[in-house]
Amino acid sequence: MTNHIEIDHITKDYGQGRGVFDITFQVQKGETLGFLGPNGAGKTTTIRQLMGFIKPDSGSVSILGKDCFKEADFIEKSLGYLPGEIAFIDSMSGIEFIRFIAKMKKMKGLGRAESLMEKFELNPSGKIKKMSKGMKQKIGIVCAFMQDPEILILDEPTSGLDPLMQNQFIDLLLQEKKRGKTILMSSHIFEEVEKTCDRAAIIREGRLVAVEDMEKLKSGRKKIVELHLADENMAASFAREIAGSKVTGRSVSANVGLDMDEFIKKAGAYTVVDLNVRTQSLEEFFLHFYGGQNND
Ligand SMILES: Nc1ncnc2c1ncn2[C@@H]1O[C@H](COP(=O)(O)OP(=O)(O)OP(=O)(O)O)[C@@H](O)[C@H]1O
């Protein structure tokens, strides 16, 4: 497999523990990689180094074999980039801004802008300063995708979009994925990551904590079992037998992994009124990486 994006031991130290430290991961040709982490973890700092806006203190980043900082001009012109916060020229109308970006990228026309505006129901004729956050985000999406780039770097692409438009975006990503695009996307929305990404890289406090296949991550999710027992005393007594369980009145809930059999056998000693079993959501699962809580 060819790597389209290579991040090799980069450190950008802003002092007081802020920044990113010794980050290494790759995005393969045709792969969609989700870049996840809590606020301030270092996602944007990593992405800005990929775009050649800032130079790593040590280590290197390259895209299509080109050093991102040394060849920043090539990177900016050829990649599809959607920044977390777009630096708009407020006095322009939406369409003027789209034309401005197309010119900057040395495009001949506006490429796929028209069909993207249709897909996202965007009327770009008004002044940007009067637009809502969602409309501005749609302009950013048009600018990132209109050139039909081979590589897309997207920093929280659906921020500000309503659920209908978030779905349109997922649909667009899935289409682009099918067309063989290489995509790196930071996101806080687990559902979009789950639906679109092949792998996820998780960063916390500037350090990479995991890079995993989505399928493997999904299969690592546990079952959450909720038992309703006959009375509160029973619930309290049962909860004492199950490590990490929570009691609310007559209910006891617990994350159950491979020890389901043991759990059921212990429950057999009590009067069970009701039983619910569900799979942990990806969000609940990721809390483990995010907050470092013990959800074993
Ligand atoms: N230019 C800078 N100077 C000093 N500190 C900075 C600078 N840029 C970022 N930081 C700090 O580095 C850390 C990582 O910030 P970054 O914006 O990369 O996080 P993030 O993962 O993108 O967060 P979010 O999800 O909130 O967008 C934060 O503590 C931030 O305050």
TrEMBL record:
In terms of superkingdom, the source organism counts as Bacteria
Q: PANTHER family annotated for this entry?
A: ABC TRANSPORTER ATP-BINDING PROTEIN (PTHR42711), ABC TRANSPORTER ATP-BINDING PROTEIN NATA (PTHR42711:SF5)
Known PROSITE patterns for this protein? Answer: ABC_TRANSPORTER_1, ABC_TRANSPORTER_2
Q: Which family does it belong to?
A: Belongs to the ABC transporter superfamily.
Q: Note the InterPro entries from the entry.
A: AAA+_ATPase, ABC_transporter-like_ATP-bd, ABC_transporter-like_CS, ABC_transporter_ATP-binding, P-loop_NTPase
* UniProt keyword annotations, A-Z: ATP-binding, Nucleotide-binding, Transport
Q: What SMART domains does this protein's entry cite?
A: AAA (SM00382)
Signal in keyword set: no
Q: What is the lineage of its organism?
A: Bacteria, Bacillati, Bacillota, Clostridia, Lachnospirales
**GO MF:** ATP binding
In this protein, which residues make up the domain named ABC transporter?
5-230
Protein name (record): ABC transporter ATP-binding protein
Q: Pfam families from the entry?
A: ABC_tran
